Amino acid sequence: MKNLVIIPTYNEYINSKIIYNKIRKRNSKIDILFIDDKSPDKTYMVVKKLQQLDSKLFLIIRKKKLGIGSAHKKGFLWARRKKYKSVITIDSDLSHDPNLINKMILMNERFPIIITGRFLLRNTLDQWPIIRKFITITRHNVIKFLFSIPYDTSGAFRCYNFNKINFNDLLLASDNGYSFFWQSLIILYKKGYKIKELPMIQPIRINGESKISIRDIYTAFFKLIFFYITKKIKKFY
């Protein structure tokens, strides 16, 4: 059965080649799909050059920036059409450790969903600025309290077994931005899927700039409270 890594990109001209090489060094057989939102820095041109030497590398170029959650949904739909079994999603900013990919695929036989957690070990966010660390920890604790979910819900580094998940459940999260991650994991958890969480140290970005703005942070918290107050989650039980 085929396995796929999905990598959404936007202005990752330098990091796209680095993350590709890191993944390929550890797994020469896995397929890789970049989904680029027409990056102004022409990230997609880097991927096109890499494609000339790698028949297992694929690229989707979208017309404009449509959101990272939307990119994941697009990747899921593409993976289903191509009949992949294990589908891994990973950020392109080098904050996720590709060394975990092979382990995720092996564990995906037992667990339909594998995620990475930043709160299983101490000091996993030591490199982060204090403000960002505070926001991330606060969000984690709020979600944990409101929805009684024990996992780190906002991380994008995950592995899904398409043979053990109802595909429509992967698309139930309505948000197309960063809130997609906590929305989708809450839904999958409430649906009763077995989830395995692996500890991961997450370093800060070295190249390029973070795509998360102050506005995104405030909006995400408002979406979280709205999601809880309106009881949207109830229809997914």
Please, could you describe this protein's structure?
- This protein is 38% helix and 15% strand.
- It contains 7 helices and 7 strands, in the order βαβαβαβαβαβαβα.
- It has a 7-stranded mixed beta sheet with strand order 3-2-1-4-6-5-7, sandwiched between helices.
- The chain is globular and about 50 Å long.
- The mean pLDDT is 89.
Briefly characterize the structure:
The chain has helices at residues 13-26, 43-51, 68-81, 101-107, 130-147, 179-190, 214-229; strands at 3-9, 31-36, 57-61, 86-89, 113-117, 158-161, 195-199.
What Rg do the Cα atoms give? 17 Å
Largest sheet: 7 strands, mixed
Mean pLDDT over all positions: 89
Helix share, percent: 25-40%
Task: Name the CATH class.
Answer: Alpha Beta
Secondary-structure element string: EHEHEHEHEHEHEH
Tell how many strands the DSSP assignment holds: 7
Named CATH architecture:
Alpha-Beta Complex
Oligomer classification: single chain
Look at the helices and sheets and give the structural class.
Answer: alpha/beta
Task: Let me know the CATH homologous superfamily.
Answer: Spore Coat Polysaccharide Biosynthesis Protein SpsA, Chain A
Amount of beta strand = 15-25%
Number of helices: 7
Q: Could you say which overall geometry the principal axes of the C-alpha atoms support?
A: globular
| Count of discrete structural domains | 1
